[in-house]
Amino acid sequence: MDDAVTKWLEAIAEGELNQEDVERSLRYAKDLERGLSKIRTFSQGVTIFGSARIPQTSKWCKLARELGYKLAQNGHPVITGGGPSIMEAANRGAYEAGGRSIGLNIQLAHEQHINPYVTDQMEFRYFFARKVMLTMCSKVYVFFPGGFGTLDEYSEIQILMQEGKMPKMPIFLVGKSFWKPLDRWFETKMQKSLKTINSADRKIYKITDDINEIVKAANKIGHRSIYDNIYNKKPSDGNRFYKKII
Fold first, then answer.
1. Burial 79-89, CB ≥16 within 10 A → b, else e
2. pTM of the full structure
């Protein structure tokens, strides 16, 4: 039996975990187990993050739909959080191209339904489990304009790459008008003023208005086997594979 499981069972036996803690940890495990089972049914694709509140008539949704279509045309699964707005637009593009369109949804006050353009779906109870799956199922990450949720997802992936907890895979921030002010703040306040980051940290991501760059990066990585996930490798091995993608 795995050491971690053994220690968990010992903690229960010795009364270190109460009933509520045990039940909570089992719910966590269930969300993760179901998520891992789902993402093992398709090869790593491109995860597209973004707002759940921007109208479909906006230029950002139109661009997300176009990107989803082009990625699917090139054989890449398109993964989103499964909600409306940017997520729906990206899923719709992939769906219209006849590609794999995946939605990993969660119940929230502003996005309680899965959009109608997914070919595969799953609903999560916990944010952290959903974020793990949105990360593990991807070889390229794309962030459209969004709110706190989008920033949370971006920041977590950025720090994992910065600290070597995951391979440095391509991150694209779509929309120079939206992301450039944040990048300038990173540079002036964090890098130059407080020195809490360095210039190399700001090279992990790329700000662009050209979605063809994203398709090109995905094509360079290619179509990995459904049984071959980059997370099964050491971060250093992944970095050697991905370092010349963009």
1. bbbbbbbbbbb
2. 0.91
Q: What are the tokens at 108?
A: 């929230």
* Segment (H or E) for 237: helix 235-242
Q: What is the average pLDDT score of the chain? A: 90
What's the confidence (pLDDT) of residue 24? 87
Cα separation of 144 and 244, whole Å?
Answer: 23
Q: Identify which of 102, 108, 99 has the alpha carbon closest to the alpha carbon of residue 127.
A: 108
Q: Which element (helix H / strand E) includes 141?
A: strand 138-143
Best mean pLDDT range from 27-31, 174-178, 220-224: 174-178
Beta bridge partners of 138: 45
Q: Give the separation between CA 152 and CA 18, rounded to whole angstroms.
A: 31
pLDDT digits (tens, 9 = 90+) for 44-53: 999 999 999 9
CB-count burial class (<10 Å; 0-12, 13-18, 19+) for 201: middle
Three-state SS letters, 36-105: HHHHCCCCCEEEEECCCCCCCCCHHHHHHHHHHHHHHHCCCCEEECCCCCHHHHHHHHHHHCCCCEEEEE
Could you give all domains of the chain from N- to C-terminal order, each with its CATH number? 40-242 (3.40.50.450)
Instruction: Choose among 70, 72, 71, 50: nearest CA to 61.
Output: 50
Q: Please state, for a pLDDT cut of 70, what percent of the chain lies above it.
A: 88
Nearest to 138 by CA among 180, 166, 177, 179: 166
- pLDDT, residue 98, reads 98
User: What CA–CA distance (Å, rounded) separates 9 from 154?
Assistant: 35
pLDDT in tens, 117-152: 999 999 999 999 999 999 999 999 999 999 999 999
